[in-house]
Design goal:
By secondary structure, the chain is α/β, with parallel strands linked by helices. The chain contains eleven helices and ten strands.
Length: 280
């Protein structure tokens, strides 16, 4: 296996470290807990498109900075963009703009699955909301003992629309997917392993990263075009179904997400209090 040295590229929300045939994409925020703001949704597709075209890269590891995968959507950062589009009184113009915005955000997670190189998610600490969308788009998921997972969107009056509801059923089955999506509950690493959300659990972040890098090296030693062909064959027929499901979720949210409950969820978040939902 040939290598092309090491390099690091820094973005507003990501850092990319290349070490020979293995690239590591590191979620860095700048929101608390590596939260996903507007820069993330702009930069992630750019990064994965570049890695896809880089013939020296054979495997990608996706991880978070500082023992945290991600807290998910950075509500504080995206609120100025999102809030004007979710007011209950909005009509066609705002709803069309919301549909366009959701589509742009969906392409971030989609870029991981579209990448022809295998992508390993190395998940330490919280993997919340949008973090599940990103992790589900990866080919393999590994985690540390302290990892916790939550399809959290229901807690903020949103139907998850960035791909988790389309990808999770093929990974963990419909029953587990519905439980997590309906409740918004947290599950720990042991439960994640039992339901096949992750392939393996490691004692701590250091062991997790060592395990992810060992798997990446093992994959990278194989013929790269064959590995990429395996990914494409396994994905055949799934991409259209996922894109159709995402489009439906985007249309549903652009039509129905504008609610008093969503405004209450956002307001409660900003005021750091429990929301009071009324079904309106």
């Amino acid at each position: 296996m040939s290598t092309s040295g090491s390099s690091t590229s820094a973005y507003e929300s990501l850092t990319v470290e290349r070490n020979g045939a293995i690239a590591e994409v590191i979620l860095t925020g700048p929101g608390k807990g590596n939260a996903m703001g507007l820069a993330f949704f702009r930069e992630l597709p750019e990064v994965f498109s570049e890695l896809d075209l880089d013939e020296s890269v054979r495997v990608v590891i996706l991880r978070g900075k500082g023992g945290i995968f991600t807290y998910g959507l950075d509500l504080k950062a995206v609120a100025p963009t999102l809030m004007p589009l979710i007011a209950p009184e909005n009509l066609a113009k705002e709803r069309t703009q919301l549909l366009r915005l959701i589509g742009q955000w969906q392409r971030a997670a989609d870029s991981i699955e579209r990448c022809t190189k295998p992508v390993i998610a190395a998940i330490a600490g919280p993997c919340i909301g949008g973090g599940i969308d990103v992790a589900a788009a990866c080919d393999v998921r590994l985690c540390s003992r302290d990892a916790r997972f939550s399809v959290r969107e229901v807690k903020v009056a949103i139907v998850a629309d960035l791909g988790s509801l389309q990808r999770l059923p093929r990974i963990i089955g419909h029953g587990h997917t519905r439980e997590l999506a309906f409740t918004g509950k947290d599950i720990d690493a042991d439960r994640a392993l039992r339901i096949n959300l992750v392939n393996d659990v490691f004692d701590d972040e250091a062991a997790l990263l060592a395990g992810a890098r060992a798997m990446a090296r093992e994959i990278a030693e194989n013929p790269p075009l064959v590995v990429q062909g395996i990914k494409q064959v396994l994905s055949y027929g799934e991409e259209r179904r996922i894109l159709d499901g995402e489009r439906y979720a985007a249309v549903w949210n652009s039509a129905f997400i504008a609610s008093k409950d969503l405004v209450e969820a956002m307001t409660a978040f900003m005021e750091r209090r429990p929301p009071r939902f009324t079904g309106a």
